Amino acid sequence: MSDSVIVLRHSSGARAEIFKFGTTVKSFFPAQQNDVDILFVSKKAVKDGSRPIRGGIPLVFPVFGAAKGLPNHGFARLSKEWEFELVGEKENRGLSPAIGVFTLHDTEYSRSVWPYKFELKYTIRVYADSLETSLQIHNHSDGKMEFQTLFHTYFACYNVKDNCWVAGLKGISYFDKVHSKEKKEQEDRVCIKEETDRVYADAPNTVLISLNRPTGETHKIVIEKKAFFHEDPPRIVSSDAVLWNPWIDKSKGMSDFSDDEFLKMLCVEVGCVSCPQKLGSKKTFELQQTIRTSLE
């Protein structure tokens, strides 16, 4: 662990690195090929804490996109107040995960831009060939709290134009933010051929991604998601999937992103953003993501 990065190591050889700033997951190296990172971070990403880190898995909370008085995508990914607890690897070495737990509480600043008392508990689990992220949101305010939240995952690829696709979204309605239109997905496999910014509302809980590697091999990635309120029994709610790639023109306007890096990444993001969640006083909401990898 350095001053700026925390490393979670699994006994299989898999590991994940997490920036302390914003608790942004920086990388995940699965055991089957532990020299290949499945996550993308821009070469021009700013890492001095002055702006969000471009890549990895930034946390979106309490808003998705722009909102009056709040930073874009909220303040969680910009916070320097995250506290870290290293849980380590439990019994049954190889089967149990390496675990890191991070917490963030409301501050004077957060309450000045978003008037709620809260606690975020972010748990990251590293297995041999999977990465789990779980965000618990606790409302410590006296009234209801409205929020959006999302894991803004950047996946790495060799060339997004070549044999890269996302499956499992056919028939799902989505909002095309590039063209400001509601559409329905017609393709079994969604390929990236232009600037892409889509919000698939109430997306399936399992999505498959195929990403090419420089070696000619293919990473098959399965994303599983779940969102629920901590009740008895748990109250599961629908959640969304977002596809994003800035493509050529937008990349040129991003100071923390190289002009050609749109070829090297694809964002497949899961969370609750199509409509705000309403969390009662003293209640808890949880968003979970599991990323499973295999190499072909």
Automatic annotation (TrEMBL):
E.C. number: 5.1.3.15
Active site positions, chain numbering: 152, 269
GO molecular function terms listed in the Swiss-Prot or TrEMBL record: carbohydrate binding; glucose-6-phosphate 1-epimerase activity
Top-rank taxon: Eukaryota
One CC-aspect GO term: cytoplasm
Record GO biological process: carbohydrate metabolic process
Keywords assigned by UniProt, alphabetized: Isomerase
Coiled-coil segments: none
SUPFAM superfamilies listed in its UniProt record: Galactose mutarotase-like
Enzymatic reactions: alpha-D-glucose 6-phosphate = beta-D-glucose 6-phosphate
Family: Belongs to the glucose-6-phosphate 1-epimerase family.
Record-given protein name: glucose-6-phosphate 1-epimerase
Originating species: Albugo laibachii Nc14
